[in-house]
Amino acid sequence: MTTSTTELGLTETTLLRFATAGSVDDGKSTLVGRLLHDSKSVLTDQLEAVERASASRGQDAPDLALLTDGLRAEREQGITIDVAYRYFATPKRRFILADTPGHVQYTRNMVTGASTAELTVVLVDARNGVVEQTRRHAAIAALLRVPHVVLAVNKMDLVGYQESIFAGIAEEFTAYATELGVPEVTAIPISALVGDNVVEPSANMDWYGGPTVLEHLETVPVSHDLAHCHARLPVQYVIRPQTAEHPDYRGYAGQIAAGTFHVGEAVTVLPSGRTTTISGIDLLGKPVDTAWTTQSVTLLLTDDIDLSRGDLIVPTKDAPATTQDVEATVCHVADQPLTVGHRVLLKHGTRTVKAVVKDIPSRLTLDDLSLHPHPGQLVANDIGRVKIRTAEPLPVDSYADSRRTGSFILIDPADGTTLTAGMVGESFASPEPVKDETEDDGWDF
User: Fold this and answer.
1) Across 333-436, where does the E strand assignment appear?
2) Beta bridge pairs of residue 274
3) Tens digits of per-residue pLDDT, 154-168?
4) Which of 8, 189, 257, 338 could form a disulfide with 404 if both were Cys (CB 3.0 to 4.6 A apart)?
5) DSSP-assigned letters across all residues of 28-88
6) How far is residue 426's CA from residue 85's CA, in Å, rounded to a whole number?
């Protein structure tokens, strides 16, 4: 028997998380600034500060990109370096946006910004069309399973608002994204600087009859159907007050990564495999019968079992298999290469274990989506397949089933640097199975 969101007393979310991406100088920060400005989401003092900064640089009009480019180096160079998160709202929906950098060396920031996004806006300069960084960002959006992609063809004012230029770029990008497995692409011709088709419809492109960027953001369906999620709770902390009021209280606290938990439900603790029953759920200090995705809760269990930070609580009827051999598609984000034999730490949820890179079967070539077999290493911004052997069993889901419990990061054990972001299971770049010619002699776990 399944439980619908309606039965739980929930309604469809009014919050949309989205990210912007694109090549250098495609106008991402200007688009975000225009969205904030034209949707009346900018405070008066913020706008005055931008006007003063723009005037000091000899600009006649406010540079709306300064609303998101907050670092001094960003303002001085006119580029985006770090991910800028902004919150704004309209009467129809609330938004959390991540304005990500365009430079190739900051592609890792796009992975961070899009990892929780339900929609990605990929900008293209109408004068340049689809370039390598555009393809890289489309590939990352597909890799991260972002369900909605908007192609914003920017700077249409600089190409005379020609429909043929927009149509050609939209056709090329859509064909590429479709081959990657992107489920939906919406193409919109805009001028972020002037404001065409960002919040208000453009009078300069009467040949376009689709939505503006804001209209699409307000109306794109965002589904969080809790009934079809695999319920998962990574344990963050064991609560033992041992006070006179609560002498025997033992609770297991964490944020629900996916799905729904109910009092009385049979659950399994992984990786140990011990089973028990949920005897209670505490939410904000009060008992509840049901808790769901993103809520931070404390579960009380019927039996006293050995359970600590890093364990995963799952419904017994829907428990993932545990494994020491993880195959995944990854985006390498560190300056130092990832090589076969590389000893790393693998962080999955709240659990961190030792691991070794067993094989790198392939690297994706962005130009034609071909696979370069056995490259031996992945360098910064490379996307490829890896096989990893962990020191301890891990309960991993396929990323296609769960973005939260199907993802992991690889960490350098020497200095704690994040090396690689990984997505478990098959992807748009699934290579043919590669026979491992070498034996496992020499493994120490």
Assistant:
1) 338-339, 343-348, 351-364, 371-373, 377-378, 383-395, 407-411, 418-424
2) 269
3) 999 999 999 999 999
4) 257
5) HHHHHHHHHHHTT-S-HHHHHHHHHHHHHTT-SS--GGGGT--SHHHHHHTS--S-EEEEE
6) 30
**Looking at this protein, which amino acid is placed at residue 149?**
V
- From residue 209, how far is each of 76, 154, 186, 197 by CA, in Å? 38, 17, 12, 10
Q: With CA atoms as reference, report the closest residue to 396 among 445, 440, 344, 355.
A: 355
Secondary structure of residue 256 in the 3-state scheme: coil
Sign of CA dihedral 204, 207, 209, 210: negative
243, 210 contact by CB (below 8 A): no
Tell me how far apart the alpha carbons of residues 27 and 33 are, in angstroms, rounded to a whole number.
10
Task: Express each pLDDT in 286-303 by its tens digit.
Answer: 999 999 888 999 999 999
Helix, strand, coil % (nearest 5) of the chain? 20, 35, 45
Per the CB < 8 A criterion, the answer to whether 271 and 320 are in contact is no
Return the H-helix or E-strand segment holding 143.
helix 132-143
What percentage of the chain reaches a pLDDT higher than 90?
A: 49
Nearby residues of 36 by Cβ (< 8 Å), 6 or more positions away: 42, 64, 67, 86, 88
Segment among 102-116, 204-218, 426-440 with least mean pLDDT: 426-440
> What are the tens digits of pLDDT across the range 186-224?
999 999 888 899 999 999 999 999 999 999 999 998 765
| pLDDT single digits (tens) 60-101 | 665 555 555 543 343 444 444 456 778 888 888 989 888 777
373 vs 362: CA distance, rounded Å = 4
DSSP state for residue 289 in the 8-state scheme: S
Report the chain's C-alpha Rg in angstroms.
24
Q: Cα 289 from chain centroid?
A: 30
Helix (H) or strand (E) holding 108: helix 107-114
- Both tokens of 322, joined, read 């545990």
